[in-house]
Design goal:
With 70 residues, this protein is mainly beta. The chain has 1 helix and 4 strands. It has a domain of 45 residues: Ribosomal Protein L24e, Chain: T (Roll). The longest helix is centred in the C-terminal third of the chain and has 6 residues.
């Protein structure tokens, strides 16, 4: 499964880990994704992966689970 934000499309990027001796090793940088219960535009509730930047910007309407409600 790809690690991608479902709102903005932010995904993994590649780069190098550089040691003090300037040795380079390939590595991946993963986005900070959170699984959130969100209200979709059609009114349904769905769990989606969202990056923290989209959460802070208010691009996602979170749904709070109420005890006793299904």
């Amino acid at each position: 499964m790809a690690k991608t934000c479902e709102i903005c499309g932010k995904s993994t990027t590649t780069g190098n880990t550089v040691s003090h001796a300037n040795n380079r090793i390939k590595r991946k940088f993963y986005p900070n994704l959170q699984v959130v219960r969100a209200r979709m535009p059609d009114g349904t509730v769905k769990k989606i992966r969202v990056c923290t930047r989209c959460l802070k910007a208010g691009k996602v309407q979170k749904v709070v689970k109420v005890p006793g409600e299904k």
